[in-house]
Amino acid sequence: MKKIIKYEAKIILCKPYVAILLVINLLYSYYLLSADIILGVSDTAPFSGWSFGKYMGSGALWTLLISLFILAYSRAGKKNVSVLTDVTAISPKKLNLIRSLIVTGFFLVGCLVIFILGCVFLWVMFQSVFIGYYVVSFLLITLPCMGLIIGIGTLVGDARPAVIYACIVLILCVSCLASVRIGTGSGLWHLFDAAGASYYETVSAQLETLEASETPFVINVGYLASRVLYMVLGIAAFAIGFAGAGKKQKDPEIA
After folding, report:
1. With a cut of 50, which residues of the chain have pLDDT below it?
2. In sequence order, which residues have a C-beta less than 8 Å from that of residue 118 and are 6 or more positions away?
3. How many helices (H) does the chain have, and how many strands (E)?
4. CB neighbour class for 76 (10 Å; exposed up to 12, middle 13-18, buried from 19)
5. Is residue 23 exposed (0-12), middle (13-18) or buried (19+ Cβ within 10 Å)?
6. Residue 46: its H or E element
7. I need a surface site. Which of 4, 65, 217, 218 has the fewest CB within 10 A?
8. pLDDT tens track for 8-23
9. What percentage of the chain's residues is helix, strand, coil (to nearest 5)?
């Protein structure tokens, strides 16, 4: 099993375009820090939980889309599937799960790098970080996205990569629309914001007071419910996809 995991990780991740996409994402994250977050979010401090949540959510969204792209691209070359399943005792559905977990691991590592980059940047610039707030934002943003990657990867299975590409476009469009609509004060749009970045900017503006003190960092029930919902959707997609793959595998034997 370890050899299979190493082999699949090499096939999926050791590609030039993966490194290029990762570097582009890190440059984009640095751009957010130096051009947007350094000014603060909705008149909050740059090192506040609000600003960091906006930064983390924006970076995680693109890391999610990149991860799904890698997952779709890895589905394009399926010539090695029959070879692996014939030579080893692994089933196609387990092989599919391994690939999804590898890409999920890539997503987590990418988000950890963005997290560390943000903490170091803010410490160097302001000598002040609220690490507890940052960790809360990191977990609320990344865990549901990880569930989505595993769920989509398992549910789609060996279907055409175009299905995953369609999911990428859908997530991007809906997240951008949610970001705009949340600004109008409609909390229900939090349910459609995949990475949850817009919450930190718009809600901090709604909570802003006329006092000179920092806007209190809070996580409201609606936002928390939306993150739990995404996690549940990912788990449900995984359960349906994994069970469905098992049924397909048994059909030839029944016939």
Report:
1. 82, 85, 210, 246-255
2. 29, 33, 37, 52, 55, 56, 59, 134
3. 9, 0
4. exposed
5. exposed
6. none
7. 218
8. 888 888 888 888 988 9
9. 80, 0, 20
